[in-house]
Specification:
The chain has about 120 residues and is of the alpha/beta class. The chain has five helices and five strands, in the order ααβαββαβαβ. The protein has a single domain, classed as Ribosomal Protein L15, Chain: K, domain 2. Helix 1 runs antiparallel to helix 2.
């Protein structure tokens, strides 16, 4: 199995998981995230930390349906769930007191979808 086949298989499993989570919780949030991740790799979002810093508040939970990049600064702690993180973004998030999670980890962590914000 080539690397791209493995990655696409993991992505399909993640999309299946998110759609199942949407049915279990009766929430459209996870369905919207699954639909956004299901786009082509070229169309997926890549969000810099300065954008997350601008559109989030202290202690909020944010979902990025794509990759989080390390450009900019994060001035307050934020819990972020994303498809992937650059090493610089992970370092800066942890230094600010925030947390980084994969989407399945964030789903397991959050009981309520009402306080989750999609940025992208």
């Amino acid at each position: 199995m080539t690397r791209s086949e493995f990655e696409s298989q993991e992505l399909r499993e993640l999309i299946r998981f998110l759609k199942k989570a949407a049915k279990e919780t009766d929430s459209n949030l996870w369905l919207v995230i699954a639909d956004q991740i299901n786009k082509s790799k070229r169309s997926r979002r890549a969000i810099n930390l300065n954008r997350i810093n601008r559109f989030s508040k202290d202690g909020e939970t944010v979902v990025v349906p794509g990759k989080v990049l390390g450009a900019g600064a994060l001035n307050h702690p934020v819990t972020i769930g994303a498809l992937s993180f650059s090493t610089e973004a992970t370092r800066k998030i942890l230094e600010s007191g925030g947390r980084c999670y994969t989407l399945p980890e964030l789903f397991a962590l959050k009981q309520s979808d009402s306080d989750i914000k999609i940025i992208g």
